[in-house]
Amino acid sequence: NALTGxxxxxxxxxxxxxxxxxxxxxxxxxxxxxxxxxxxxxxPTEKRRRAYDCDITYMTAKEAGFDYLREFLAV
Length: 75
Known about the structure:
alpha/beta
């Protein structure tokens, strides 16, 4: 889990919910010393990397799947 230093990905149904939930729960997680980010469709690569570097990252299952495939194909 995020408290032990392992990143957590939280999958949501759509981009709106990923952003909403990250902004809504962000202050709670940040009070525990955790960083929170979110990924949405069309986000630039550098911004995605910063979101993945957070302790907790919100995204859709679609974005997680496509990012996995992009990373796999880049190798």
